[in-house]
Amino acid sequence: MPTRQTKYGVAGCGAMGLPMAQALLKAGFNVCGFDIRPIDQFGDFSSHMVTDPQIFSNTCDTVICVVRDTKQILDLCFNDQAIFKAPHPPKTLIISSTVSPLFIKELRDLLPSKVELLDAPMSGGPQAAIACTLTFMVGGPTEQIETLNPLFKAMGNKTFNLGDLGAGMTIKVLNNFVAATTVAAVRNVIAQADRLGVEKDLLLSVMDQSSGQTWFGSSFNQTQWAQEQYNKTNTIGILEKDVNAFIDALPNGAEPLHDAVITALKTLPPMPR
User: Fold this and answer.
1) What span, in angstroms and rounded, lies between the C-alpha atoms of 184 and 192?
2) Please, are residues 50 and 9 in contact by the beta-carbon 8 Å criterion?
3) What's CA 110's distance to the chain center, in Å?
4) What would the 3-class secondary structure string for 103-155 be?
5) Each residue of 150-175: pLDDT tens digit?
6) Contact (CB, 8 A) for 166 and 141
7) Span(s) in the chain for CATH 1.10.1040.10
8) Percent of the chain with pLDDT over 90
């Protein structure tokens, strides 16, 4: 079982990683954060941020990676920050970023053999990260997962032990494809409702109690990014990235529906404020 003396690091302290690190700190874990942004952007957690990747590597036994994509993971592990080329690299790496399941297997081959690797992507968005109600989908040896369960419980309220390495990521990209389709569909019908003279909140309230109910529609007015248009760096852009991770894992590549969802995300109609 993890001890409070063990040092835990969260790499990528953005909208998800920062509240996850804060949750671990609140639960009493010895935790620090690492990010390439200036340290003054992390508020009350600034004193727990580490600016030197080598110090971060050498002082953390377990690193939870919440960076954006495969390139940033490779930069963190081997290239720009190279924490696994440090004299005393972390013993355990937990990938909570959403990437292709195929990449997880490739990463296992790139890491030193003695490093324990788990995939533990999460669902719920920034609201759930702040509320410590994330859902974790974990792949890896059962013994490892059980050892790290206290971490997941500090940050979330549901943890699924899904099987071997890569199993968590496989289910996450399947889940996120469904989520992406609902974002595209809900945003489309809101635009059509406006043209048909139907008020948005009336439509959403009826859908919430009908067959058109979705997480995105039901939480639309409470979701900060719900009205965003596509930008590679915002939440809609991350959804597109997740759909591409799903497609990458498919033996036969993209089908028409998959391409249509990406097109829909990238061409979301503007929303009146």
Assistant:
1) 12
2) yes
3) 22
4) HHHHHHHHCCCCCEEEECCEECHHHHHHHCCEEEEEECCHHHHHHHHHHHHHH
5) 999 999 999 999 999 999 999 999 99
6) no
7) 169-266
8) 94
169-266 maps to CATH 1.10.230.10? no
Bridge partners of residue 171, in order along the sequence? none
Q: Which CATH architecture has domain 7-165?
A: 3-Layer(aba) Sandwich (3.40)
The b-or-e profile of 48-65 (16+ CB within 10 A means b, else e) is: bbbeebbebbbbbbbbbb
Neighbour count for residue 66 (Cβ, 10 Å):
27
Maximum CA extent, the chain: 65
CA angle 212, 215, 220 (to 5 degrees): 95
Q: Could you read off the pLDDT of 4-20 as tens digits, one per residue?
A: 456 999 999 999 999 99
Residue 211 corresponds to which amino acid? S
The burial of 23, by beta-carbon neighbours within 10 Å (0-12 exposed, 13-18 middle, 19 or more buried), is given as buried
